[in-house]
Amino acid sequence: MSKVLVIPDIHLKPWIFDQAEEVLINTDCEFAVFIGDLVDDWNCEKNVELYEETLQRAIDFVRKFSETVWCWGNHDLSYLWDQYDHPGYSIFAADMVVDMFEELSDSLGSPEQAGIIHRIDNVLFSHAGLSNEFVESNLSDMMDDIDCMIDIINGYGVEELWENNSPIWVRPQYGTLAEGMYDHGLFQVVGHTPVSKVFMMEKVLTVDVFSTSSTGRKIGNEELAWVDTLTGDWGYIE
Predict the structure, then answer these.
(1) Bridge partner residues of 132 (DSSP)
(2) Which end of the chain has fewer CB atoms surrounding its CB within 10 Å, N or C?
(3) Domains plus CATH for the chain?
(4) Strand, helix or coil at 34?
(5) Helix, strand, or coil here: 141?
């Protein structure tokens, strides 16, 4: 059994890492998987101090827990890929974000721990999820070889991934995917789409419960969850 803590979308809430650290110290979770979108939040573009505080807290966390697995989200990648028109993008913090993301990556145990998508045992972790539409459009020749597909996806850039059905953008929660999500006996864990509570739908667990509306209203219940990567079982941290 490999029980892991899932850290959902942060969006400039560094205190979530304080909770995550307590979980890793006081429970049987073996390590953490961050699901993406560390930066950006409503009307925070000029709050450079909050960007720096959040990025430094993330760096401190992965230095202490260097086995952390890191998924990049669309907001994170907008800085790494110079997508200046992305909603929430801070031109004021941009250079610092890129530099500190590099420091964060270097602080992980190995370069392979940061990427778009990861498989741990029987679970796929990514920011938004791996859809059949994306696989069939881009990886049809190897759709039965998930590890090969993961290697290729983690080497993709903005041209391949800046589209609605990609692992950083797709929203299966909206029920608009004709072909559904990639299965092949695997279970997926995603963030990206704010929800009121962690929930399972067709072998996809959605965990973005810390995001807020544009008025600052809490959307989710702000509870962290764990996942067993062998069985696919999951639950809230007690």
Answers:
(1) none
(2) C
(3) 3-236 (3.60.21.10)
(4) strand
(5) helix
